[in-house]
Specification:
Layout lengths: L1 H56 L4 H7 L4 E2 L2 H16 L7 E7 L8 H22 L6 E2 L16 H5 L11 H8 L15 H12 L5 E2 L10 H7 L4 H26 L1 H15 L4 H25 L17 H5 L17 H11 L2 H19 L9 E2 L1 E8 L2 E8 L1
Antiparallel strand pairs: 1-5, 2-6, 3-4, 6-7
Helix pairs in contact: 1-3, 4-7, 8-9, 8-14, 9-11, 10-11
């Protein structure tokens, strides 16, 4: 009897030990499973959070990229948050051990309505274009698409005030352009030499020449609303006609400065002016009359320079005797001479003068008007309600998973 009790006691002790071990083992397994689930949520949230952001970026506007090399997705913060929550619920919604929520979505710092965001993308797009042209050895000669007479397509205008008010540059102006032109133009001999390669200004100008046409030269196969797009970037007027006139006035004013300097440096021309002034003034204040005559002569030559440029002829920044076209007799007697072509083949063409005027714009104004044209052309060719302010190049957000906060930032 005593031995049986001892056996039973031993069996009872073993049972207790087994139960204690099993309980400890189950607790340990449960702990490991809980830790594994937590690690799964942690690693999943960390890795998938970036993937969800990339999924939002993948919905970029295809025509915007194809036409202008710009990445941008349509949206607003509420819409983006809904998309992120959809991805989150799809991944963790049926898993009771995961409590996840999307918080603090920010996309407005990446708005394509911001010039600095556009500049980032232009740097990349223009750089890729330049590399592509070098590799493919493309001919960069612009294509003239008028009949060579200085006349161009039927002018277009935007009169809808709502459309104008929606433009990124609305209410912005660039002042002092002509003053900057008159100062800078005295210091160089060729318009081609004023922009240093590799700078933002160089890349922006390359982008403009590649993506937008001007009144007389086509930027490859481009479907813009305005005929005078590059002129719009410089002048910011709502019609082709206004932009053409503005560019005409600016080129003539630029040329007038240089032509006046040439007259001042040419002894023979000054002698002719003084002789004419003596006759016309009848001895009264000939010096003042001489200044008027010199100004009129420089202006007449400048008008002729513009007429040459729009007909595809080059005009040198610094004139020579061979390239000077208008005679003093034509000026004094107010003779209509039309466009006088001396046969000069040296100098800069209309495109070069456009580039010069572009260089005189401040960077912010230039970028804003590039953005205007992109919005105008996207509306004209693809979607009538397109707005750059509704497109974004990146996003930031926080994800709270099981009490831990994860932050994500992605952009193109």
């Amino acid at each position: 009897m005593s031995s049986q009790r001892k056996i039973l006691n031993k069996k009872g002790s073993m049972t207790i030990y087994v139960l204690l071990f099993a309980t400890s083992l189950i607790s340990l397994v449960t702990l490991f499973i809980g830790a594994a689930k937590s690690e799964l949520v942690r690693s999943g949230a960390y890795e998938l959070g970036n993937l969800w952001a990339d999924s939002v970026l993948a919905e970029y506007d295809i025509p915007l990229y194809q036409e202008y090399g710009l990445f941008g997705y349509y949206g607003n913060e509420a819409l983006v948050e809904d998309k992120l929550m959809f991805y989150c619920d799809y991944t963790f919604g049926d898993k009771g051990y995961a409590r996840c929520n999307v918080e603090d979505v920010n996309i407005y710092d990446y708005s394509l309505a911001k010039p600095d965001i556009i500049l980032e993308q232009i740097r990349i797009a223009a750089g890729e274009e330049l590399v592509s042209e070098l590799v493919a050895a493309k001919d960069k000669t612009p294509i003239r698409y008028d009949d060579g007479s200085g006349k161009s397509g039927t002018p277009r205008v935007i009169s809808n005030q709502s459309t104008l008010r929606s433009l990124p540059s609305y209410g912005r102006t660039d002042t002092g352009l002509l003053d900057r032109a008159q100062e800078l133009i005295k210091s160089f001999t060729s318009i081609k030499d004023i922009v240093k390669k590799g700078t933002d200004e160089y890349l922006i100008n390359q982008y403009i020449q590649k993506k937008f046409r001007n009144t007389y030269y086509l930027a490859e196969d481009h479907k813009g609303y305005f005929f005078s797009e590059q002129e719009y970037i410089i002048s910011g007027k709502a019609s082709d006609e206004q932009n053409r006139k503005s560019i005409r006035n600016r080129i003539i004013a630029m040329r007038e400065v240089m032509n006046g300097l040439y007259i001042e440096s040419n002894y023979e021309m000054k002698e002719k002016i003084l002789a004419a002034a003596a006759v016309l003034s009848a001895g009264y204040a000939p010096e003042e009359v001489a200044l008027v005559i010199a100004g009129a002569w420089a202006l007449a030559e400048s008008v002729n320079d513009y007429e040459l440029l729009i007909r595809g002829k080059p005009v040198p920044v610094l004139k020579t005797e061979e390239s000077w076209a208008v005679s003093l007799d034509n000026v004094i007697n107010n003779k209509e001479s039309g466009c006088i072509d001396t046969g000069n083949t040296e100098g800069d063409d209309y495109n070069d003068y456009i580039v010069y005027l572009l260089c005189l714009l401040d960077d912010n104004t230039k970028l804003l008007r590039i953005m205007d044209l992109i919005q105008i052309n996207m509306r004209y060719n693809y979607r009538s309600d397109f707005l750059l302010s509704e497109h974004y190049s990146g996003l930031e957000y926080s994800l709270k998973a099981n009490g831990e906060l994860y932050e994500f930032k992605e952009k193109y």
